[in-house]
Amino acid sequence: MSITVRQAAPTDAPAIVELIGELARTLGGTSPITQDYVGEYIAFPGSSILLAQEDGRVAGLLSYSLRPNLYHAANSALIEELVVRESARGRGVGSALMSELLRRLPSQGCAEVSVTTMPDNERAIRFYRSHGLVDEAVFLEKHL
Questions:
Q1: Cβ atoms of residues 53 and 59 within 8 Å
Q2: Least enclosed by CB within 10 Å: which of 13, 17, 26, 94?
């Protein structure tokens, strides 16, 4: 099967909602995401979603945001979500998404890319390391 990666459009909202829902179920929860919110996200400056397709069907997504970074005097990219349909895992969909992101970022003025994952998610940690990401910092958060 051939994997293609493209920029998401507002018309992709149903597939995006479905994928985020699958991610939430995998984590034992739910997401309040709606198609309207996907449209707002896509329209928000600096927010992007890449979609991977196999044989015309959306198989995964990678969402990320760009923000200015004072230290680097350049943009910094934050990977927010990387989701591959359970039925499409192990076929290179996630790697295709990461490769495309890493190819695009220099032309978007990025000096770095970062991602967070749960410390016990060894599969995700191995995946990101295999794409050149390294342990750099501790990420702290508070849900509001």
A1: yes
A2: 26
Q: Is 33 inside any structural domain?
A: yes
Residue 29: strand, helix, or coil = coil
The total domain count for the chain is: 1
- Helix orientation angle between 122-130 and 93-104, rounded to the nearest 10 degrees: 50
Classified as helix, coil or strand, 32 is: coil
Tell me if the pTM is above 0.90: yes
Reading the block at residue 116, the tokens are: 């967070």
Question: CA-CA distance, 7 to 64, in Å (whole number)?
Answer: 11
pLDDT tens per residue, range 27-70? 899 999 999 999 999 999 999 999 999 988 999 999 999 999 99
What Rg, from alpha-carbon coordinates, does the chain have?
15
With contact defined as beta carbons under 8 Å apart, do 21 and 9 qualify? no
